[in-house]
Fold these 4 entries.
Entry 1:
Amino acid sequence: MGERTTQPFALQLLDQLEPLANLSVVDVAAGTGGLAVAASERGASVLAVDFAPAMVERAEERLQQFHRSTAKVMDFIALDIADGSQDVAISNFGILAYPSWQGALKEMVRVIRPGGAIALTMWTNRDDCSPAHLLHRVFRQLFPNKDLWPPGLFPIFSPTALEKGLLRAGCVDVRVRTAQADWSPFSSNDVVRECDPMFRGFLVMLD
């Protein structure tokens, strides 16, 4: 369900980085590998990393058709990757969703070669710009004294604040732009079925 809403932005991100053929790319917080697959299709050698073993297992299955791409379990703030070994580091709706994003960004800077590129995406703070924002607004209306997810997830970034964070991490020639794409949800039944395990976890924390 998540990839249904994020993949259009992944493709726009890759368009900005073209040409990718024969470049080494690390996809941080890769999830189930939607961006990693798309980058591999464009000729990149992709290492997709995530801290969730089930996500990595699914990404590895999808990347098997690309002999130069793979997926591994890694901590975002302690990547098991050599300094300056990657041409491009990407995180599509990944590290910026976590309070530890600044540390993860520094790791991305560390692993790319001089003159390489870092590319990130995250929802803006506009109302209902993503399923997460819509869900949060409705939940807050129904349960004004409870939080939908743990504090610190999905921080709000203005373009200026994000640019300053990137510069602090060691990036240069920083460019922030707003991208747009349509997202269409599954049916209500599909959403409930896909999200039920996640919601159960949140409700335990809220009780």
Entry 2:
Amino acid sequence: FRGQPLILDVSAGRSSVSVAGGYLQVRVAEPDSEAAVQQAVERWLRQQARPLFEDSIERQFGWFAGQGYTRPVLRVKKMRTRWGSLSAKGYINLNMALLHYPPAALD
């Protein structure tokens, strides 16, 4: 996460995901279900992505605003072949897999 390797720690409990002491701690009702663990982690990644991606866009948008562009609307997606894209309709789509890399990769 954010360029730091984490050890996956899965156990039974109320659904939650957190990072602590080098571990990605995943608590799900069915810890033996790969689908349940994956779903919990993806939901957590989306929650983490939105504020980080919005911050990156905000920090870099000044130059584009000076050129007369309007700020795009962020969409966080799970993409197979792209890191991101910008549509003519004003949407910036960013791959949530960018969270696996150091912050500089996002910028």
Entry 3:
Amino acid sequence: MTGADRDSATAVVVGGSTGIGRGVADAWASAGFETHVFSRSRPAGPGADRLVWHRLDLRDADRTGAALRAGLPSRIDLVCYSAVYFTARREPFLRTDEADWDDQFAVNVHGLARTLRASLPLLRTAGPGMFLHISSEVVYNAGPQRSGYAATKAAASSLIGSVAQETDPAEVTFVQALPAGMVDSPGIRARRSPDFDYSDYMTPAAFAPLAVELARTRGVPYAGDALVVHEGGTWTPIGDGLPVSQSLSRAGSRP
């Protein structure tokens, strides 16, 4: 991509104010893309001034589609969907709060579908555009006490796979990426005790090298792949080995 092309290229990250989405947004902004972030909270901290923020609450079904259509730039080269809803703590299915269950579907599945509907026509004009979905090991491992999260992330992964099969890869490429372990983020910290040790957790910046590679290649070498991102910024195809279950591992067993 030439300097002129890069100056005119545009990226969108839904759920990009914190966590993995923020790692992707910062990487794309640093690479020279005009980067738009759609989220409930405004991005803060270093690099936030390089991001164009649009307030979006994916739990508000009546407004989400309209907000996306109104806020999306007229040209989009890259989209990342990283929005996710966690419950306050892990609980058995029969104890799951019904409102939490509905919110997980609203954000993890319906929000993704609405983002696809709004962005795909614009991505097609980029020739090819690239859509990155942040997936999870729960798609492959399920696990106890996270039925809503497992159900919604599996549905989201299948949705991406289905839409990818409907779409000419010369128009839009689809890539899914998931962390090899737990990632330190505000959402996770809200579920942990103040003295919790995060030293063995990944950081959102681990996703930056992959984000830059996908931007450079428009995802063409990875079209249709699910990639496991490791601490240190490397990645491997999911076929090379499933990540350890975060429910059954030492770190994942905590509430």
Entry 4:
Amino acid sequence: MRDEVFRRLRDAIVDGTFAPGEQLRDAEVAAWLSVSRTPVREAMLRLAEAGLVVALPGRSTMVSPLHVRDLRDARDVVAALHGVAVREAMSRFTRPDIDAMREANERFRAALDEGDVDAALRADDVLHAIPVAVAANRALAAVLDQYTPVLRRAERMRFSTTAGRASIARHEQLIESCRTGDSEGAAAVNYDIFHSLSGTEIDQNR
């Protein structure tokens, strides 16, 4: 129950259901999710640790504004850890893993063609989750799970514009490097994919 409440709140913040600056009152959120206030409070604490909400003492909790510094801090951590993940996974990739990454990139391409940002984000998640799963590093996965949602709000903005199409070619480079066993090449591309979120997306959407 706690994990489900956390995921639903996190996703609602990332997809814009709850806008930056919007107040989240425990009782109202609990009623919306049809749960008690206890898992809501616990989820709020986890969301605060991830930087997605800010506690307002004696009042309520507010969805964090989109700050460039917060994005860049999360970006640096996420970019570095995806590089670690792909290095650790390199000797363990199977052909089905590579095929699954290709299929995810094709879904990503199709979603951008159709202007379906939600589908593009889901496909992007699937693609990048494969090296993380193959690496099987639980500590790495836990940190990524905490900080990736911060970037998702910026990626949503990027994928809604033509700039998002650059990720298709980067994905293809990543997949080819994984196929050929080029760990350094894969790590470099993976790092570039995430580190290219420079804050421009937020600056342009304030």
